[in-house]
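Reopening this ticket.

The earlier resolution said the output was attached, but the attachment link was broken on my side. Pasting everything inline this time so it's all in one place.
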Amino acid sequence: MKADDLTDDGFLDNRLKVLQPRKGYRAGLDAVMVAAAVPAKPGDHVFEAGIGTGVAALCLARRVPGILITGIEINPDYAALAEENAARNSFKDSITISTGDMTRLSDTQIFALGSFDHAFANPPYREVGKFRKPEDAGRRVAYVIDIGGIQTWMNNLVNLVGDGGTVTMILPSELDEAICQLSIVRENLLKIVPLLPREGEYPLRRIYQLVKGESASIKTMPGLVLHDEATNYTEKAESILRMGEALQFED
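Inline output:
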């Protein structure tokens, strides 16, 4: 992509500098939040589906030293940007990107089943036929999917992690009932953290974390309040979005 088509954006209080398309899919709060929720430890190998320009992967790499991240991205322009962003933030050796379709992992033998400690995604989430599709091709790919597609992503990610590994996703609350009814969810432990715009308000997003091989149940954790009454970030939200701290799944 040409330089005029890009912006140079700061994340984690400018600890990360990321090139993103001026028009098209642009990462924001969701990417930072889902990265903060991945319970990775130094030395772990983590998989990201739909790595985009690499924002979430970079946030995770910045928080957890010594991890390896493998990402897949369907848009070759975004995959190239993710590689450039990894290099310009000194994570070239920590983050590897492949171009491919997350819904068709069975067509390739690139990724060995059960070979990752954790997996995560900020997947497409607008159901086909229920909203006006973005004109930009990058935004269409990043935003348009139905619940069947989400299930495919989740099934594929569960297959990639070993027993005890986690699959973490951030999704709009409108999908909550459908997510909780998925067969893969009924076979494993699912933990949910609602993200509330303000105290007492309805959560627009929820973070879902499936733990492979754990006894099947659904646990909803206390919600994370993002803003106070003055629309400033709460202390806990700011610790994640600006300081790069972990989002804990607390009972």
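Reporter confirms the inline version is readable. The chain has one domain: 3-241. Helices lie at 29-37, 55-63, 76-88, 137-143, 147-160, 176-180, 235-241.
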